[in-house]
Amino acid sequence: MHRLEWAKFSTETAGFRGYDGAEATSRRSAAPMSDAPPLTDQQVLERIKNHQLIESIEHMSPAYLEGIKRILTVSADTELISAPAYYNPARAAPSLNPFGSALAIIQDELGHAHIAYRLMRDLGVDIDALIYDRDPAKFKYPYAFDVPLTTWVELVMANAFYDRAGFVLLSDVFGSSTFGPWKRALVKVDKEETFHLRHGENWMRKLSQTTEGRREIQRAIDWMFLLTVEWFGLPDDKKRHTEQLGFGFKGKSNDELRQIWMSTAVPLCESLNYSVPAHFDQATERYVLDVPFPLAFDAENKRWLIDEGEITWDAVLGRWKARGPMNQQYVDTIQRGHKELKSLLAAA
Amino acid sequence: MNTSPAPTAKQQSSEAGGWIEDRKLWEVYARRKYDEPLYQVGTVAADDPDLGRVYARTIFNEFPWIEMVLIPRDTIIPVIEA
Questions:
Q1: pTM of the full structure
Q2: B59–A127: do the CB atoms touch at under 8 Å?
Q3: For chain B, which residues lie within 8 Å of any Cβ of chain A, measuring from their own Cβ?
Q4: What pLDDT does residue B22 have?
């Protein structure tokens, strides 16, 4: 198969079927795309071993291409869905300046989504179809965003927890990714996510000065902490896409990244005297959870069913795949304008 | 001179793939200091250069740049390729 054909080749990878219709781009130039066959995995690994970044689709094997599209889709979808998720509670901002800060954060997130989707378009993905024609349940972002954020307190806790998770994951990609265009783009993302989590921390400190504020923060921690622990995915011994480490899409494993997140999130909460279901274990020098994990989650009531005890990861995967209460509404919000304009013009 | 009639909205809307999203690609270059060169900070898609300017300013607003330029991707001629 020639390169122009395989760039459009629709794979069996869930979430990408039918979205590979765009013209893949040959580097950053007017040069016509080479019709040479794609590289082999061995050639890609050789290039990586020689400290040469992967710069375009012409440097990729089919497996590398599918892997980088998978991780870019998760990143882009996560950034995109955070916009409607954050906009609802942003409207509950206590005054003009915080409202402006919240909108600035949403604008940052849309910029991050734009970067990842643009990169995927260069890899031959039909971005219009991917964003506007995809079934809501096929979007690939952490389940946490499917649980509604309804108050200002929940928004700033999302900044403190969720944006911290994003920062941990993308800092790892920034440090380790072998895909040059994304690695360079993440300078911006890293800087802005730092602002988001500082925004969350500052508001936690401010709100912690009142009894009512403390109660609301603790209530948010009680449901949001474990959802963010889940954010990092399956435990290493159950992980499916092992090529992510081999090709250098990521540097650290899910469990290592989970530890990094807890190593700052737990001390932050403890420093403000909040209760979190995790502590640092001196013997193993790791953060450990104080509750059974994973657990069933009552999304409607934002409550972990601790009394029911530990469940299987298969059950968690089932919940993730079924998506949560806000999935349909958030994706509808994103897709509505595109669909309305298309049908308006089609009827003209 | 192009004498073909402009496509109607209906014709446009029936095209495969999206047309609502801009198709023309621009490389965004910027620099933060006078003693550093322009470097590539990202890309934007914009069929109109003025909109391209707005998109670039809005999306790549992470630093207080002293200069930012757009270069049409299809004008770039590679000399040495990475």
A1: 0.88
A2: no
A3: 8-10, 12-14, 16-18, 20-21, 25, 27, 40-45, 58-63, 73-78, 81-82
A4: 79
Q: Domain B20-75 adopts which CATH fold?
A: Ubiquitin-like (UB roll) (3.10.20)
Query: Does the CA dihedral B57-B58-B59-B62 come out positive or negative?
Result: positive
Cβ of B59 within 8 Å of Cβ of A115? The answer is yes
Q: Quick check: ipTM above 0.85?
A: no
Residues of B in contact with A107 (CB under 8 A): 58
Query: What is the average pLDDT across A110-121?
Result: 95
Residue B31: count of CB within 10 angstroms of its CB: 17
Q: Where does the pLDDT of residue A250 fall: very low under 50, low under 70, confident under 90, or very high at 90 and above? A: confident
B77–chain A nearest CA distance, Å: 6
In this complex, the residue of B10, B43, B73 whose CB is nearest that of residue A346 is B10
pLDDT in tens, B43-70: 999 999 999 999 999 999 989 999 999 9
In chain B, what are the domain boundaries?
20-75
Q: How far is CA B48 from CA A118, A120, B17, B74, in A?
A: 17, 22, 19, 15
Radius of gyration of chain B measured on its C-alpha atoms: 17
Task: Say how many residues make up chain A.
Answer: 348
CATH topology of domain A3-346: Ferritin (1.20.1260)
